[in-house]
Amino acid sequence: MSEGLHTTKVFVVVNGKGGVGKSSLSAALSASWSQVGLRVLLIELDEQGNNGEDLGFTGTPLADQGDAQAAALLDGKLLTPTGEARPGLFVVPGGAILEDVVEELYCQRRLASRCEALEDRTAWMGMYAAAIDAVRDDYDIIVLDVAPGSEPLQLQALVAGDVVLIPSKSDPSSRKGLRTVALRFAQARALNPFLRLLGVVVFATNVSATRVQANIKEQLGQDLRGAAPVFEQCIRHVESAAVACRTAGKVAHELRSSKDIDPSLRRSLKALAGDYQSLAIEVMQAKTALDRARQTEDEA
Fold it and tell me: How far apart are CA 219 and CA 223, in angstroms?
């Protein structure tokens, strides 16, 4: 298959630092896209299993603690979602069982390091790619929510992905995490030439401080050295709304119309929901532009 015929489908949401909104962003985008009729698969490559809290399926049969991933990666079974967290939103949750997967990945990497051929030394990095390719055609969008501190899982996701979304705050640790991902991105591109940095999402900002936002975007752009844009739509910092969403197991656009919440909180939820939904549109527009560019290259 030529690169121009490769349709963007697998979104990798990742940062080398935790606490930057990775899981919240993954859940909100997945829910928004499924709401408009897309068939979405959300795979959580994270032992914490935060998607269950974000989407409200913790303690239900959907929360398998990572068993479906272990079955696919360790036993060669088909990567099968545990069910639908929302109509059209299929989930493969993370959890404690992913420790077994990570341990196997380390073992495979150690064994591969002894091989002479470069192809054999890097083959272990494609285990998730193989599992995802087997179900790729069943979905319109596949979102990989990737653990911040696990190099093997990050490399696996990047090799399996089409585009990368990096949520980042403005603090030095978050920016350092972004640069860490950029280095691993370069490693993955050697095996996955389709991979592109789609952009950075500025997270937890003060929406009224436009000059501060501009400075943050400029700094992040410098970190990436022009390799990817910083999305125009930022996600505002509203602690009360974020806590309410995770407590209720709903994303902002689902909770904003609840009659059981305080009017001031409802206003915050509406604003936060608007941020996420505007970002979902902007990201999809970037995806469409990338697909058109690839098609043009293929036709040239």
Answer: 6
**Exposed e or buried b per residue across 74-91, where buried means at least 16 C-beta atoms within 10 angstroms of its C-beta:** eeeeebebbeebbebbbb
What span, in angstroms and rounded, lies between the C-alpha atoms of 68 and 112?
25
The amino acid at 81? P
- pTM, 2 dp: 0.91
Of 95, 96, 98, 15, the residue nearest 52 (C-alpha): 95
Tokens of 125: 């990095």
How many whole angstroms separate alpha carbon 261 and alpha carbon 122? Answer: 52
Distance separating alpha carbons of residues 56 and 251, to the nearest angstrom:
9
Secondary structure element (H or E) that encloses residue 254, with its range: helix 252-255
Sort residue 60 into left (φ over 0), alpha (ψ -120 to 50) or beta.
beta
DSSP annotation of 148? S
Alpha-carbon separation of residue 25 from 202, 259, 260, 272 (angstroms): 11, 25, 24, 11
Tokens encoding 171 = 């603090």
Query: How confident is the model over 204-259, as pLDDT tens digits?
Result: 666 555 655 566 666 666 665 556 688 989 999 888 999 999 999 999 999 998 88
Q: How many percent of the chain have pLDDT more than 70?
A: 88
Buried b (16+ CB within 10 A) or exposed e, 196-221: bbbbbbbbbbeeeeeeebeebbeebe
